[in-house]
Design a protein that fits this description.
six-stranded mixed β-sheet
Length: 346
């Protein structure tokens, strides 16, 4: 079998297009990535050319009312309370390569010309697709894992990567510091909710459930609508123990068909919102944590036309190596912090 370089390029590009468009890109993942899945579905676009992604926010108001009679003097105020939130956008790359040697070992020859004079057979196309399949799987899962970890991180792991959700939803929202260009000490409205080290040692005390009951009101206080709750395995275990401690087995749960008893509890939800297990929290040593989001207020922004953009670099003249890459140019912005929360058990 013999490919021209042009035919190889066309076949490789077609294989990548097919692979990346066949259904949900996350379907091949070895672990569920619910945060990445949600953020990707909420991606917005912006025009490039600026250093940061910006949003204007306001948390304080100057105008007030004043009673008066007859010719009492009244006062006027000049509101100036708009602040600007900034988030950096970054360039992200992921790529694969394959060599002529690898292709030869799989029975695929290359005619080193770009005139396309040699016609390949269907068998050659299938053989090339088989060779690329593992590389494409690796590229896809590698991109997913990298983006997922990046979006869970705070940016301190790599200054050239996008600061993720924990840069905005912090465990120390009252501590000195500037988040997104706004001082969170001077502006109490620019803080996420937090409650750490909740005592879950005695499940019957319902400390976790009671804490969330109180917190949910605060998450909604300023118009928040919690719609994504992601937890580590230890926190979910504690939640389930509190449910069991109060006898939350249903009659249906105790008496399944065939005389079998289902001793499990149903999937956990709070206020109708499912609390999903995110394995990444376990990987990041945060198995005792729960993050609650309003995804209208924290979302990725990508430069128009630069969302997972495919690249086909030319082969170097001194190497028989072929390259394929994907790039992303964007960032993560949060335009309201007090509608998100982070919670943990002791």
């Amino acid at each position: 079998m013999a490919f021209t370089v042009q035919e190889l390029e066309n076949a490789a590009n077609a294989a990548i297009d097919f692979h990346f468009k066949r259904g949900d890109i996350l379907s091949q993942s070895l672990q569920d990535k619910p945060l990445l899945d949600r953020l990707r579905s909420k991606t917005r676009t912006f025009q490039g050319g600026k250093e940061n992604i910006t949003r204007r926010v306001k948390g304080e108001y100057t105008t007030t009312i004043q009673g008066f009679e007859h010719d009492d003097a009244v006062t006027y105020r000049n509101p100036a309370n708009i602040k600007q939130v900034t988030a950096p956008w970054k360039l992200i790359h992921g790529g694969i390569s394959f060599t002529m040697h690898e292709l030869l070992k799989n029975g695929i020859s290359i005619t080193d010309t770009t005139d396309g004079s040699t016609t390949s057979t269907h068998a050659e196309q299938v053989a090339l697709a088989n060779v690329l399949e593992d590389k494409l799987d690796d590229m896809q899962e590698g991109l997913d894992r990298g983006f997922n970890t990046m979006f869970w991180s705070d940016g301190s792991q790599d200054s050239k990567q996008i600061p993720g959700v924990t840069a905005w939803i912090t465990t120390t929202p009252s501590a000195a510091g500037v988040v997104g260009g706004i001082d969170q000490v001077a502006n109490s409205w620019w803080r996420n909710r937090v409650s750490l080290a909740i005592d879950s040692s005695t499940a019957a005390n319902q400390n976790l459930v009671q804490t969330l009951q109180k917190e949910w009101r605060q998450l909604r206080r300023y118009g928040g609508k919690p719609n994504l709750a992601l937890a580590g395995s230890d926190l979910m275990d504690a939640f389930e123990k509190e449910l069991r401690a109060k006898g939350n087995y249903t009659l249906e749960g105790w008496a399944k068909g065939g005389g079998k008893i289902d001793a499990s509890v149903a999937d956990i939800a709070f206020k109708g919102l499912e609390i999903q297990y995110d394995p990444t929290l376990d990987d990041l040593s945060k198995s005792k944590y729960l993050y609650v989001f309003d995804d209208r207020r924290i979302y990725p922004m990508v430069i128009d036309g630069e969302n997972m953009k495919k690249h086909t670099p030319a082969r170097p003249e001194n190497k028989y190596v072929f390259y394929r890459a994907v790039t992303y140019a964007g960032g993560l912005i949060c335009d309201q912090r007090n509608c998100h929360g982070v919670y943990s058990i002791a």
